[in-house]
Amino acid sequence: MSFYPKKWAIPVTFLIAIFVVVAGCSNNNASTTSNATNQSTVAKSITMSWPRDIGTMNPHTYNPSQLFAQSMIYEPLVSYQSNGKLVPALAKSWDISKDGKVYTFHLRQNVKFSDGTDFNAEIVKKNFDAVMKHKDTHSWLGIVGVIDQTKVVDDHTFRLTLTEPYYPVLQDLSVVRPFRFLGQAGFPDNGDTAEGIKEPVGTGPWMLAEYKQDEYAVFKQNPNYWGTLPNVKQVTVKIIPDAETRVSAFEKGDLDLIYGEGVISLDAFNQLRENDEYTTQLSEPVGTRSLLLNSSNPKLADIRVRTALHQGFNKKDMVEGITSGLEEPADSILSKNYPYTNINLTPITYDVNKSQALLDEAGWTLPAGGTVREKNGEKLEFELIYDKTDPIQKAMAETIQAEWGALGVKVNLSGLELTVQIKRLKANDFDLYFWYNYGAPYDPHSFINVVASPGFGISETLSAISNKKELDQQIRAALSSTDETKRQELYRSILTTLQDQSAIVPISYIKKTAVYHKNIAKFVFPANRDENPFSGITFNTQ
C-alpha cells in the first residue's frame, strides 16, 4: 500500500512490515544452538528467525535487503529516539541556517568503518552523491526532492544545501535507508552502488561475519566500533518462513525471543503470555489501522454520511474482541507518541441513534419493509475491500458489515490480493479501504504529505471535503516552516480538520509484541520502527 510522491517523504515500509525475531543462544559455532534456559556461560549471543533472506546489505537500495539487518551494519548522521527526539549519531552536532536551507554537520572524529578505514566528510559526500545519482529511485523520501548541493567543508564537516526549506530533513536522515554510510571498500569500481556493492562495510555495532543465502547469516560485533558496544555480541539469523515453526521452537527452549508485528497469531501470543516461564511485552503504538471513506464517491461526499458511519459501529468492542486486547481502540488518526500529535482532539464516539438521525437528515431513509436505505431510488451501498490474507482485517470487515447493515447501510466485502489492493488505491477505485500510517520516524510529516499529494490514494479520499484546498495549503506551510510555534499551530489545525471530517476513520493502534525467556533480563523496543532491537537487550547472570 505504499506509493511514493516526487517531493515529500513517504516511507517504503508503510505496510505493516513483518518484523520477525526469534532469538536463541548459540555458541561460537553459528550453526548450533544451546537450550535457552540452560546457559551456564551467560551467552551474549542470540539466534533469531527471519521469514526471508537478509538480502545484499546494500545501504542505498531496498528489497531484498532487510531493514533490521541494514540497521545493524550502517549508521545515520542523526538518530531518532523516543518521543521524536533527534540525537547525534555519526554527526556529533549540526547547524541550520536561519532560512532553513543549509545544514552543516560536524562529524564525529576517530570513527572507523569495520575494515579500519576512516569515516570522514569525503565518504559522507560519496554516499550522498551515490544516492542522488538515482533520485527517481529515492524520490519517495522528501529530502531527496530538495537537495541542491553536497559539500565537503573539511575532513569532519559536511554541508547540505537545499533548494527550499523542508523541516523534516533530520527525520529523513534518521531512517534506515538510503542515507546511511558504506565504506570505501564496499563501493564498486565505478562508484554506482545501484549496481551492487563489493562488501557490506559500515560503522555500526555489528558486521556480517558469515552468510549462506536463504539459510542463515551471522553478525558479530564490530571491533572498530566507535561507541559503546551492545551486550549482544553475536546475532545469528536463521531463515524460517513458518510462524508455527517459530512458536514451536520457542516453546521447546531452542529460541529466546519472538518479536515483531504480526509475527505470531493472537491466540499464540495470549497462550505464551499466560505462561509464567516467559516474559511478554507490548510496545507503544507503531501505527494506526484506519478505514478510508472515499469522499470522491458522491454518497460519501456528504459529511453527514461519513460521520454517521464513523459513529455507527462499536469500535471498542470490535477491537478488543478481535485483537484480544493486543491492539487498543484509536480515537485519533495518529497516536500521541509522535511529534506534534499530543493534542486533545474530540473523538467521534459510538452512537447508533445519532447515526440514524444523520442518515435521515442526509435524505437516506428506509423504504417501507426495506432493509437498505434509499435516496432518489438509489441504495446506500458500498464495497469494502480488505487484504484476504489478513484475518484481523477480515473479522473487522465482517463486524462493520453487520453493524452498518443494522443502520440500513449495505456493505459488500471484497477480499483481495495485496497487489490488487494497491492498484485500486492508487487508481482511486474504492469506496472503503483499510489503511495504515507509516510510523516513526516518518510520521507525522509523511502522513500529512500524502493528504496533500495526489496520486497515492489518500489525497483523493479527501478530495470532496469542503476545505481541502485550505488543508493542502496548511500542509505545505507546515512542511516548509522554519517557525516551530507556527508549525505546532498548523499541525493542530490539520489534525483537527482531519478528525472532524471522518474521511479517515481511526480504528486501532497497532503494537509490536515481544515474548522471551528468562535468560533475557531486559528488552527495549526501538523508537524507530525499522531499527533492530538488539542494542536494548541485556542478559541475566545466572
First CA to last CA: what distance?
46 Å
Largest sheet: 8 strands, mixed
Number of helices: 15
Helix content: 25-40%
Uncertain residue segments: 1-42
Mean pLDDT: 90
Walk me through the structure.
This protein is an alpha+beta fold and 542 residues long. The chain has helices spanning 67-73, 121-132, 135-138, 169-173, 243-252, 266-273, 303-310, 315-323, 352-361, 391-406, 418-426, 445-452, 458-461, 468-480, 484-501, and strands at residues 21-23, 25-26, 33-34, 45-50, 78-80, 86-88, 91-96, 102-107, 147-154, 157-162, 206-212, 216-221, 234-239, 257-260, 278-293, 328-329, 374-375, 378-379, 381-387, 410-416, 432-436, 504-517, 520-522, 538-539. The relative contact order is 0.17. Helix 7 packs antiparallel against helix 9 and helix 12 crosses helix 14 (468-480). Helix 10 (391-406) links the parallel strand 19 and strand 20. Strands 1, 14, 15, 16, 19, 20, 21 and 22 form an 8-stranded mixed β-sheet that branches. Strands 4-13-12-11 form a 4-stranded mixed β-sheet, with no helix packed on it. Helix content is 26%, strand content 24%. The chain has 15 helices and 24 strands.
